[in-house]
Automatic annotation (TrEMBL), chains A, B, C, D:
A molecular function (GO) term: lyase activity
The protein's name in its UniProt record: Aminotransferase class I/II-fold pyridoxal phosphate-dependent enzyme
Cofactor(s) in the UniProt record: pyridoxal 5'-phosphate
Limits of the Aromatic amino acid beta-eliminating lyase/threonine aldolase domain: 13-294
GO biological process, one term: amino acid metabolic process
Pfam families xrefs: Beta_elim_lyase
InterPro entries: ArAA_b-elim_lyase/Thr_aldolase, PyrdxlP-dep_Trfase, PyrdxlP-dep_Trfase_major, PyrdxlP-dep_Trfase_small
The keyword Transferase appears for this protein: yes
Keywords: Aminotransferase, Pyridoxal phosphate, Transferase
Signal peptide from the UniProt entry: none
Family: Belongs to the threonine aldolase family.
Length: 349, 349, 349, 349
């Protein structure tokens, strides 16, 4: 079986493995206080263009999200997110378990609009009984979004501006940041993203690492005492250097960006094939995830050889199928898939 | 100014006040372990027709809701509610502060449909990654709902049946239970409501008491150790007898039901006048809350003499206005309001 | 039976009852936004000598404590308290349920020493792995303490000074504040107490009210958005005016202080009798609670007519007995008790 | 510098590294649902002698502890632990952040006595106001303890018996389980430990893995829905196979036990040298951690070449020093240390 259901089916990019192996018997102190983590922090500060950014390393995405959000909110505050936001749907209520409501805004394309955030906040304070409602306390977006779409520079600037105007910290979940930055048509750079938000993550797990997310506070105040929170949330890795090592391996020579770009390219190849086969794509997506509506017979035929993520889609006889590429996807696998999609669709007709 | 904005603008029904005054200098033990609370518990068990119902007294509604919900759920579970449910909107995230997500279901009329609950639960378990989502752990409904509507016996039976089938405890928030039971067209009795759910509240605050909600567990197991939870949630009243006394005053001679019936009747008088004046009512509501769309000039004119609850309604130049009656509303006040509504509307035309 | 087990066995002082009765049919807005609450706030600001103090009214003590503490701490912080502190022992883990550890300091007399607080904080930061430990985030003391003792002006000044130096807000739980202020030998005034802390409570429940605690933030910033937190913690009373009315009744003409003084005097009368009978008092206490070691036979004899609070005390055949007076205790009851104590002790000998 | 401050200064045992490398490009599904995790679960079930044990893999110890504890307790319950217990001291209040109090029992040697647990629980229910106190809901012990000591079979049987009698689940934190099982004088086997508790962990991080703890529920019911809780607590590793692979590498051929035994032996070599040099050891410890009191000048001299964990010890001029060995400690390093300890102590004299 060839796996396309997500971007974490393999281990790590060889450079990551090599780094872990070559340093294995070295002795360092724990909890990400070692020199590799220090070097990785410096490198990230340089790449994002903020010399005093406060950089932390955690193991996973849900962990990072719940830790960042609980660090920023007071008890009566909630986090504004799109209804499709990862924190709203796929974290088993980790935000709520930390005591906070996710204030969702309906979004057709997975993106949060500046005007929607403003409207939600205005409506909150317009209510005479607003103290009976959860106070909007911060904004969460993903880049790319959970549906594979991207904010344009203009959209993110507007959102950032509104957040600033309303005094709401903006948190960008970059679990797939590499795939977003390297996508066709993306007009945002890493330093621009950093400049437009208060905290963001650089995802390792889905972009070449065994695991690991870098949390970057772009100003200094919001990250105060963040290490206490990492520990409390179970995210303080004893052998913390493993995180520093991996980010060094991926970021030092631009591997992170190269492999993301390649995965995006392969995903677009799949997309083109899906369109050519007459299938309807679900969103105008140029990143490594492609969402397509498939008739059940076609899907079942393909599932003899391939693994996808499949969800109901509200149409009888159809399914919403997610096809992911990653740093590890081979050209051969994609070519095979493309051929089979085309064949299955023709056969069907 | 005459107040119609809610059903808690006055103190308590005279019988309640009398009971508190006449017992004031008696000595009793605290924390609702006194004989008045014991008597009130017995009386409630008798009225609901469940000899071993587990009855507790708390001060307020949000307190009762958060305490009951946190008693019933495990950490990874959420409570299913209508989008308009009080716990979803007007409790400043008390449920989330206890660690749980409110799993909302869209509802046009404030009611949760049995089929919607079933669909939500089925969809949860159908998801291969359901462990990444909050598990539905119980169901919350209000009777009457927050929009003044009522479940019919058939609707509640279906909901109760589905909850039973799915193993989800059903919690009925009866903050305005009296107004629901005594409403025109209601076909449910108190014992029937008790029989169809696992826990419900009998609201005192809005139905004649100074404050107080009775929480009734209809089986014994779910309420285990509930007094610990009351204390932890800040709901253990030191002079707990005040709660027992009030429920005795209201329930002993049927005052609770009489005053609720009268308030419903007055609300229907207002409703009839609103309809006669050509205004559109928002829901087919026979309880003490009436929701009506009003043009701003009419509203402003009326607000010179009356206080209402006002919310935006999505129509330019219109507002959604809530008009409440209560045990304390006078016929004179209602007559004055009716006359003025009619006058304002005519003037406008 | 005559009750001496606590200070909340009766209802409320007649002035409180009168105020509630005389205003019963008035219409006011809810949630402590009415004019009575406004007046009570003004009066309290005047009495504590801080014109812009931020004053809130809650129903009970545990509720007030958990709400204040959760308002002041970030998630990784704990509250420093004596091992005997109410929040450490008798609130069913309400502080922990809000996510925070109570960092206890052993105390023989129920008081927290300035030096102990400093030592605890210094030790925390001296630990290289302090991020693995809960950060001290505020200090909680009770006045009077749970064992009936009082901070002297000098002691409270030192504690206040250390808290200020360490950047830790100081919270004084005044559930029995009246009894403390009016006790023999107390050298602190209400404005002094207010000036030496960041937030404190004026207890109503145990000092003449049916229920109610006033929470006073002496600066403005710490109480920001406190009403959201009151609501979330289930402490927002719908008919909030009941709280304002009670504090007005008690504080307008000094009743609060008079009745507290009288209760203290009666307690000292009991204390003198206990000492005269040869019993050992547990602490040098001049407030309304007296703690005495009693041989079991004496206790059992007295318990035929009186109710006390009884705890084991580590001595075979003895018990630790709490005897409380209150605003409602009569001279006759105290005289009877004194006579019987003396008789029981003589008989025993 | 040679590191002896903890047992996680290196990466992983070569067998672990080899396993990760050799499987790196394989495709598997995520979240520990892959075949390697399945195999590791089977192997663990076999080793612990419970065919239907419910086995889960998490990344770290604090994460495992908070997840297990929040899975077992209801909101009003606390976990009983020794004052020195890891959850009581070094997890930044993770248990409290999950809403629960740690009910500590003083312990001179890090161990919880059966009689102490019984006494605490009896005292709880003997209190008339026990509903105002946190209810003991489970018991937590570490094997070995945080001070390096071990429960004998008899001690653990007694503790297990009491827990069973009181209806309290017993949780054994085995972060250093290997070092405990292989220690001189230990009379407990892995199946015996499993049989005597409800849930325990097999620590990987400190015993040869890069990271990873296996959580073993010995009965089936308590672990129900545990995967939801893992996800919510941020412990669900996307590339979960990394955990299965590591436990397979360590447990398949007994490496876990061999390396633990060797580390224990080296620690005892250090202990013997410390004693020979006339230093006082802090506890009768036969595992890989040795705690010794050292005069500051000796410590400072040694710190020129070695890294230890150092804490104040209440004696002027002395420190409490922890010296750890691990699977990675070399004989050469230990020999050098021994020689230098002896030399420093002689020099001092």
């Amino acid at each position: 079986m060839l796996h396309f259901e997500c971007d974490y089916t393999e281990g790590a990019h060889p450079a990551v493995i090599e780094k872990i192996c070559s340093t294995n018997m070295e002795q360092t102190c724990g909890y990400a206080n070692d020199r590799y983590c220090e070097d990785a922090r410096s490198l990230i500060r340089q790449l994002v263009g903020i010399p005093d950014a406060d950089v932390h390393f955690l193991v996973g995405g849900t962990q990072s999200n719940r830790t960042v959000i609980s660090a920023l909110l007071r008890p009566h505050q909630g986090v504004v997110a799109a209804t499709t936001g990862h924190i709203a749907v796929h974290e088993t209520g980790a935000v709520e378990a930390s005591g906070h409501k996710v204030l969702t805004v309906h979004s057709a394309d997975g993106k949060l609009k500046a005007s929607d955030v403003k409207e939600l906040v205005m409506a909150h304070y317009a209510d005479a009984d607003h103290e009976h409602c959860v106070q909007p306390g911060m904004v969460y977006v993903s880049f790319p979004t959970e549906t594979g779409t991207l904010y344009s520079k203009k959209e993110l600037e507007q959102l950032s501006g509104i957040c600033c105007e309303l005094g709401l910290p903006l948190f960008i979940d970059g679990a797939r940041l590499g795939y977003g930055l390297m996508a066709d048509g993306n007009d945002l750079t890493l330093p621009e993203i950093a400049r437009m938000c208060d905290v963001f993550t650089i995802g390792g797990t889905k972009c070449g690492a065994l695991f690991g997310e870098a949390v970057v506070f772009t100003g200094n105040a919001l990250g105060r005492d963040f290490r206490y929170l990492i520990k409390q949330n179970g995210g303080m890795l004893a052998k913390g250097r493993l995180l520093g090592l991996q980010f060094l391996a991926l970021l030092s020579d631009g591997i992170y960006f190269e492999i993301s770009k390649r995965a995006d390219r392969l995903a677009m190849k799949v997309r083109t094939a899906l369109e050519a086969a007459g299938l309807e794509l679900c969103s105008p997506c140029t990143t490594n995830q492609q969402f397509v509506y498939m008739p059940v017979p076609v899907l079942e035929k393909l599932e003899e050889k391939y693994v996808f993520s499949v969800a109901p889609c509200g149409r009888e006889g159809w399914r919403l199928v997610r096809i992911c590429t990653s740093w590890a996807t081979t050209d051969d696998a994609v070519d095979a898939l493309i051929t089979d999609i085309s064949a299955c669709m023709e056969e069907k007709i």
